[in-house]
């Protein structure tokens, strides 16, 4: 259940952050109006709360792993919403980022808890 929860929270965080940034982009770059910007700010705020619901207590680890999800999610958003056509390098980079995210967040408990916090 924990892996399922992690994945669902990462997907929700990606939709909130990428969607929020996209709404602000639309307001600024495409002159879609301030309502888009306000909704974008609200979505970005929601992203922060969703990210904080991750079961891992280490902020740095959660956000580092989320970075890979953000990369893949951004490409997916571009494909679905904006008609973006990724290059082979986009696909390879996204795959590498997802592998890195999986290594960070799914590391065995003993390996992830053995690191001493930096003072």
Show the helix and strand layout.
Elements: H1 2-29, H2 34-52, H3 59-82, H4 88-105, H5 109-113
Protein name: YnfA family protein
Main location: membrane
Subcellular location: Cell membrane
Q: Could you list some keywords that capture this structure?
A:
119 residues; mainly alpha; 5 helices; flat
Describe the protein.
The protein has about 120 residues and is an all-alpha fold. It has one domain. It is about 80% helix and about 0% strand. It has five helices and no strands. Helix 1 packs antiparallel against helix 2 (about 35-50), helix 1 packs across helix 3 and helix 3 packs antiparallel against helix 4 (about 90-105). The longest helix has 28 residues, at about 1-30. The chain is flat, with a radius of gyration of 16 Å. The mean pLDDT is about 90. Pfam families: UPF0060. Its main location: membrane. It is a multi-pass membrane protein.
Rounded to the nearest angstrom, the radius of gyration is 16 Å
Domain count: the total is: 1
- Strand count: 0
What is the SS-derived class? mainly alpha
Percent in strands: under 5%
Helical run tally: 5
What is the end-to-end distance? 33 Å
Low-confidence stretches: none
Profile the largest sheet.
none
Order of helices and strands: HHHHH
Which overall shape is indicated by the principal axes computed on the Cα atoms?
A: flat
Bin the helical content.
over 70%
Mean pLDDT: 90
InterPro entries: EmrE-like, UPF0060
Subcellular location: Cell membrane
Family: Belongs to the UPF0060 family.
Protein name: YnfA family protein
């Amino acid at each position: 259940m924990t892996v399922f929860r992690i994945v669902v929270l990462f997907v929700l965080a990606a939709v909130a952050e990428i969607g929020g940034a996209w709404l602000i982009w639309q307001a600024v770059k495409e002159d879609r109006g301030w309502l888009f910007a306000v909704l974008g700010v609200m979505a970005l705020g929601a992203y922060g709360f969703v990210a904080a619901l991750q079961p891992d207590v280490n902020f740095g680890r959660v956000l580092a792993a989320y970075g890979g999800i953000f990369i893949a999610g951004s490409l997916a958003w571009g494909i679905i919403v904006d008609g973006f056509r990724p290059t082979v390098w986009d696909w390879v980079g996204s795959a590498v980022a997802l592998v890195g995210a999986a290594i960070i967040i799914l590391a065995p408990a003993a390996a992830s808890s053995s690191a001493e916090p930096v003072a």
